[in-house]
Fold this sequence. Notes:
6 helices, 68% helix, mainly alpha
Amino acid sequence: MRAVRQPVSGYDASSTGGMMPMSEVREVREVREARAVMPIPARAVQILLYALSFIGIVSMLALSDRLTAYGQGELMASWLPVWVCAALATTYEGRARTGVRTTTVVLMTFTILPTFMKLGEAAAPAFVVDAALRIVLGAPVVVLLFLPETTAWFDRER
Length: 158
């Protein structure tokens, strides 16, 4: 068990063994508490990923009756990275770090680019809407994850 040092006459022992004024200790605590609030861009990414995953489920249910088993599997494969990203988004408030951010960027890129390339092959307007939703809601996720506030959130101390 580690001994905890008590403040002595307005000073607090820091983890380096030196003494710092209590006002500086309060400032450090305030900064740590302020960093504990998730920034708006990170929260927006979380909301976008949850919305995309819900849209993916609705899209699968709406389009599955028109497809063969192979077509359903192909449609599910295009939504699978989004669902993985939504599962990763549940960790954004707690223990998520740079690896989770990088994984989300890579998976969303692998969702957006193939969807964009196959957009012209869509057989029906419903499939165009399905692909357009992945692109329109997926691109902001990638952009928001590169903003300085979001990067700082994922690079924070444990």
